[in-house]
Design brief:
The chain has about 300 residues and is α/β, with parallel strands linked by helices. An eight-stranded mixed β-sheet has the order 6-14-13-8-9-10-11-7. The protein has a six-stranded mixed β-sheet with strand order 2-1-3-4-5-12, sandwiched between helices. A hairpin with a 4-residue loop joins strand 13 and strand 14. Helix 8 crosses helix 9 and helix 9 packs parallel to helix 10. The longest helix has 14 residues. It is globular.
């Protein structure tokens, strides 16, 4: 089935209440507070979900129990006073709690903004499949990049409040890797999570009509090769219209990563643009998932047909 544009949530207004949740790993308290200060500086009213600072009693890589993490996300989403739900950090754990969410109740709550990346890729996929919503692949409230990098902060702020000004993603680093120009609907995220989603209730079975946006962290080239090969062999990338590549931090020398990406993706015969500035790099520019866009390898840009938010 061909990917189609999803429903765009409303942009944020000054004074909007936003909820911060932790669907995945434990959150450092001091970094969370620093992130909340940035949000307050944007004239937002951030509220922290009850279990954001929890740590699982036995599995220290989780921010509390699956049930508590799911309850925090669902309660925040279903609160009519909340305009956006921002994830505090990634790590691991979103897949464990996705099946505990009441998708019927969340659908009834209506569209709002979800922001996150990395492990939150599992939720981006679930929100696309279950709620039909555009989501934002962007920085998390307690992430060091959000706290320290002005470009990361401004990209998210502009997307949330002035989405017309954030329709083109084309940082100075971006370059065409495979030539061409393609139109499609954006989807993707952390590529290892896309592979891990295969066979689950939230996994899409093809990329027909889609512009795939992928990045990752800490995966050596041979592991990235295995991940991409799995996606190719499963048919998950069949029909993809174009591919935008983000950062590959801690994945080995970039020359080796580039060679691997070209080897695995170049044969698809679609335009590929590298170093678009989203993901686990020094900057993490916000990019919406589920919107119509054009990927142009000559200008090394991704341009949205419409603003991410209405």
């Amino acid at each position: 089935m061909k990917l189609t544009p999803l429903t765009r949530p409303a942009r944020l207004r000054p004074g909007a209440r936003v909820a911060v949740v932790a669907p995945s790993g434990p959150v450092p308290a001091e970094r969370l507070e620093a992130g909340l200060d940035i949000l307050r500086g944007w004239d937002l009213d951030p509220v922290v979900a009850p279990h954001v600072l929890d740590v699982h009693p036995r599995l220290g890589y989780l921010a509390g129990t699956d049930q508590d993490r799911a309850r925090d996300l669902q309660d925040a989403w279903c609160d009519p006073a909340v305009s956006a739900v921002l994830c505090a950090r990634g790590g691991y754990g979103a897949q464990r709690m996705a099946d505990l969410l009441d998708w019927t109740a969340m659908r009834a709550a209506g569209p709002k903004v979800l922001v996150g990346y990395s492990d939150i890729t599992a939720l981006h996929e679930a929100f696309a499949r279950r709620l039909g919503l555009v989501t934002l692949h962007g920085p998390m409230t307690a992430a060091l990049t959000f706290l320290k990098d002005a470009a990361t902060q401004e990209s998210l702020r502009a997307t949330l409040f002035e989405p017309e000004s954030a329709r083109t993603l084309g940082p100075a680093t971006a370059r065409g890797l495979v030539p061409g120009r393609a139109a499609g609907v954006t989807f993707g995220g952390c590529v290892s999570l896309l592979a891990a989603e295969l066979g689950t209730p939230y996994a899409r079975t093809s990329a027909a009509g889609g512009l795939l946006l992928i990045e990752d962290v800490g995966e050596e080239p041979y592991r990235l090769d295995r991940i991409l090969t799995q996606l190719l062999r499963s048919g998950r990338l069949d029909g993809v219209a174009g591919i935008g590549l983000g950062s590959w931090a801690e994945c080995g020398p970039y020359e080796d990563v580039r060679a691997l990406l070209l080897d695995r993706l170049g044969g698809l015969g679609v335009p590929v643009v590298e170093e678009l500035g989203f993901g686990h790099g020094e900057s993490n520019l916000t990019v919406p998932l589920g919107v119509s866009a054009v990927l142009d390898a000559e200008s090394a840009t991704l341009t949205l047909d419409l603003p991410a938010l209405v």
